[in-house]
Amino acid sequence: METIKLTIDNRTAEVAPGTNLVEAAASIGIKIPTLCYLNLHELGCKNDPGVCRICVVEVEGRKNLAPACKTVCTEGMVVRTHTPRVINARQTILELILSDHPNECLTCSKNGYCSLQTMAKDLGIREAKYKGETTKPMMDLSPSVVRNMEKCILCRRCETVCNQVQTVGALSVVGRGFTSVLCTAFNDPILTTNCVNCGQCVAVCPTSALSENSNIREVMQALADPGKTVVVQTAPAVRVALGQDFGLEGRSVTGKMTTVLRRLGFDYVFDTDFAADLTIMEEGTELLQRLNKYLAGDRTVKIPLMTSCCPGWVSFMEKHFPELGENLSTAKSPQQMFGAIAKNYLAPKLGIDRRNFIVVSVMPCVAKKSEAARPEFGKDGDPDVNISITTRELAHMIRFANMNFDELEESDFDRPLGESTGAGVIFGTTGGVIEAAVRTAYEIQTKKTLPKLDFTELRGLAGIRSATIDFDGVPVKIGIAHGLGNARRLVEEIRAGRSPYHAIEIMACPGGVPRPSTPKTPPNRCASRTRIPTFRRSTKSSSANPADRFRTNCSTPVITTANRSWNPRNKTLWKKYASPNGESTR
């Protein structure tokens, strides 16, 4: 393969043709500071508008400073990245950016984790030299996202990820010059637009122009209220992402997490995997029902069946492909199934009014906040899940409480809603939902024990994957996609009548998107963004949840043993998973 040799800071770099100076310098360990530049290698997407000019460098033979993100390497090029001239230019550029930025770092949600703040520290900016007109405050929020354009530096990262990666098209820069602003169509409130609250704009924003809608204060108020009983459920991906924030990379911290949640004041600590098992049974059964009708010649049945666990994906379907809504599974997500069970079964068992029974969820993505706020997920105005927080918010709460996470002892989830199977655990990785459903559907349909538990055909990191599973002589075609741009391709095939699949799993978050703007803070990763090898290794090593010994959700004693009683005093459980009125958990 042909390569180009150049010299950067007296070091030789050898790169492929077309490589820019930022990437070339990084290949030999030299960091050129950037604000607007973002290369999402795994997604084949790059944001390089060249607008911030923080990355300027000296190139021998060129009179002006060159923006490294827009300068392509050439043979024999000599580059200097940190000369006095370059540093002075970067300082001036940053001072001009800060002249139109609010001076409220101490109360900002990104304080200590802001790329702009970090860069100001690194470049030694100690005063705001330039005074003048500033952008007028413009606040907007949804249950998931807060949009504060007063803090926007027009890097356009969010625009790129929203339009090119997710193909949602909710954000765009309008206007010219100083009046340029990033906004929604007609500057409408984000709640009324085609935004699906997937949170990818938040993940790539270098400041707090786009941030998650924090619910930490509401959780703390509930915990401090003696009249409230507060229970918490935690998603499978959280137990890995939380460990990353406390230096336990690649390890499941389930036991430590349950301990810290009790110390924070939660009355009961439960596992969303319990509800994931219920989701698997619902979706697996629904898949079989639809397939049997379809194979019997009923062409009115909606095939392929599409999973409904990811709220960003469900919102995408509602707003972009409403005519295909009946293809979605009718099952609630595990978060909402758990909320329904906790409010309709557990609270009456404990003799607590559901309005005084507060259900908190710890989830890996901001879209769950919007899902919990949907009016249909509740009763008489009381939501099934009162508050949803992200992994990042839980990490902040742990730090508020001044606990040494690494030294905490391990403990188990409470019963009854802490029992689960390995099928529920793999919800924490892309492809895990459909793999778990296929396990259940196979054994129900064939009346046979699985010859092997793992369907490796459904695993991988490709944006779109497919596999054919043999259901005792009946080939069932499965499609899997992560990232809404990939999902759009599959859905458009369905709309055109060309889809070969019987079932499709979608996760809204593109796999492996980095979160460069907030070092030392847990990535806001949804299930598809937890690395498959890391997640599976870490969950296998976890001993905090004894339910891991059960092979599939069908064999969980909680589900198969329906008539045993539960004593709330010692939190021992065995109970029927349905609500006391026989209501469906859907």
DSSP summary: helix tally: 18
**How many DSSP-defined strands?**
22
**Residues in β-strands, percent:** 15-25%
- What order do the strands of the largest sheet run in, or round the barrel if closed? 2-1-7-5-6
Cα gyration radius (Å): 25 Å
Largest sheet geometry = 5 strands, mixed
Distance between the termini: 56 Å
Which consecutive residue ranges, at least 5 long each, have pLDDT under 50? 512-586
Helix content range: 25-40%
What general form does the structure show? globular
Structural class: alpha/beta
What does this structure look like?
This protein is of the alpha/beta class and 586 residues long. Helices cover 31% and strands 15% of the residues. It has 18 helices and 22 strands. It has helices at residues 21-27, 84-98, 115-122, 157-165, 200-204, 216-224, 238-245, 254-264, 272-295, 311-320, 334-350, 367-372, 391-400, 422-425, 432-446, 484-495, 532-540, 557-560, and strands at 4-8, 11-15, 38-40, 45-47, 56-59, 66-67, 78-80, 139-141, 145-148, 172-174, 181-183, 210-212, 229-234, 268-271, 305-306, 357-363, 378-379, 382-383, 387-390, 464-471, 474-482, 503-507. The strands form 7 sheets. A 5-stranded mixed sheet has the order 2-1-7-5-6, with helices on both faces. Strands 14-13-16-19 form a 4-stranded parallel sheet, sandwiched between helices. Helix 7 (238-245) crosses helix 13 (391-400) and helix 9 packs across helix 15 (432-446). Residues 512-586 have low confidence and may be disordered.
